[in-house]
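quick one, 113 residues, struct below
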Amino acid sequence: MNSLPQCPACGSEHTYEDGNRYVCPECAHEWSRDALLQDPDQGLVVNDAFGNALADGDSVTVIKDLKVKGTSAVVKVGTKVRGIRLVDGDHNIDCKIDGIGAMQLKSEFVKKA
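---
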């Protein structure tokens, strides 16, 4: 008997574990174990680039140089951002970065600190 969860994308029973993630060999969908523990009615669920769940007030670190649109400023790799706020949309993190000010980031370019 398979104790692993079914694929949330296609419903396949042939899933397998890969580290802390589940993988469906039929549709290639991947999801984290933490995603199963989170209630879908809970609201906004945002994960960092490595699949760790983020919450309001967390600190994150930038993992890629990011150009600030409309200026010549760059947010450098390793910049630590404290006290984030999660929002709905493409850029799903609101924050203030020292020396730059208020801005929005995509969660795919940060890791939980």
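DSSP finds one helix and 13 strands in the chain.
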